[in-house]
Amino acid sequence: MKSIDISEDVYREIEKRCKLRETENDVLRRVLKLPGQPRNGSNYRRTPKPIRTHNKSTDRLSAWIERNQLHLKFQSGNSESWDLPSKNDKAGIREVRDQAVTFAEDYGATEGQVNAVKKALTDNGYYLIR
Questions:
Q1: How far apart are the first and last CA of the chain?
Q2: Among 98, 67, 94, 106, which residue's Cα sits nearest to residue 83?
Q3: What is the pLDDT of residue 57?
Q4: Which of 75, 97, 119, 127 has the highest CB neighbour number within 10 Å of its CB?
Q5: DSSP H or E stretch at residue 74
């Protein structure tokens, strides 16, 4: 068995292509169209390894609804508020959500923080699909 050094982005791409119970070697064999090889129990994984990336924000974000307004505030002081439409106005809710998400992303929000913005709306009855 040989080992090779690969960059982080190449490894992430291999992991993305990993199907259930496949190893990195299985993925490369499939992509390179090489014949399969019998597996021994030592390389056999039930699920792909999680990709470890730095995904933590250093600027805490708070999202809440008060007095019919959505409020976002970063710990660093950046903040914004939007008037909320009726709970039946799906287009209006989408517009406010998109503006809030754009604001959060412009100030470096993580995926989790963006999801928290959306959750603040749904937790208070501002749904897009119901």
A1: 54
A2: 67
A3: 66
A4: 97
A5: strand 69-74
74 and 105 in a single domain? The answer is yes
Whether 129 maps to a domain, the answer reads no
Mean pLDDT score, 73-87: 94
Query: The domain containing residue 26 runs over which residues?
Result: 8-43
24 and 77 assigned to the same domain:
no
Give the separation between CA 75 and CA 79, rounded to whole angstroms. 9
Q: Per residue in 31-49, pLDDT tens?
A: 899 887 655 544 444 444 4
36 and 69 share a domain? no
- The helix-helix angle for 90-106 and 111-123 (nearest 10°) equals 150
Res 24: pLDDT: 85
